[in-house]
Amino acid sequence: xxxxxxxxxxxxxxxxxxxxxxxxxxxxxxxxxxxxxxxxxxxxxxxxxxxxxxxxxxxxxxxxxxxxxxxxxxxxxxxxxxxxxxxxxxxxxxxxxxxxxxxxxxxxxxxxxxxxxxxxxxxxxxxxxxxxxxxxxxxxxxxxxxxxxxxxxxxxxxxxxxxxxxxxxxxxxxxxxxxxxxxxxxxxxxxxxxxxxxxxxxxxxxxxxxxxxxxxxxxxxxxxxxxxxxxxxxxxxxxxxxxxxxxxxxxxxxxxxxxxxxxxxxxxxxxxxxxxxxxxxxxx
Length: 284
What we know:
Blueprint (H helix, E strand, L loop, with lengths): L1 H14 L22 E12 L5 E16 L4 E18 L2 E10 L3 E10 L3 E10 L30 E14 L2 E15 L10 E11 L3 E13 L4 E13 L4 E11 L8 E13 L3
Antiparallel strand pairs: 1-2, 1-13, 2-3, 3-4, 3-5, 5-6, 6-7, 7-8, 8-9, 9-10, 10-11, 11-12, 12-13
């Protein structure tokens, strides 16, 4: 009896009509995930590569499971568990290297605070740590390739490093139009093998928005990382065009991502496809 009650209650939460606060802001496909609404999400990304020189093939998938819990007072916490599947074969002279692996990335956990303002506007601050859990063996050492669909979370797939992540996201709605921006910085606080010292800190600047059609939201998102290297400031972006569909508290989404300004890889990275399933548990 109790098991049936639990199943019934869970389905009722997920499928019940969402209250207005759940629709005040949108769930990004490629920008920062943090919103004022308690959310559970699974994000999947597939990347289409033309094999770089020396590679016979390169297959890349990314998967992130996570969410955030928010109290009615606006305080909360978040967790993200990134996974990457890498399958490659490349040649160094007559020697062939090939491997495939499903690798875990740097698990991230932290605190966030959300403040609502008049006019359907909110501000979300988050601070957290990306812990050094990323697999760096064999194909796992190449998992940074899988960061493209959520490029702002690049540090979640850099092995042997710990990162302090800070971010601030204003967002809101005016009529049928959504808008959002993300400003953040990623600071390397532990770099075991000096792998990331030349790319830290990383500044994150994202902008996006969309239109609410009732049963669907059409979205456009531009995600940019600015890397403050010793020699120069380098930046690269991704542009995502997509949609989320509304079914009660469920928000399935799909997006097409295009690389912009990837100096070394843009000619080989064609595009990425994003599939996302988000469930709201409204606390407002």
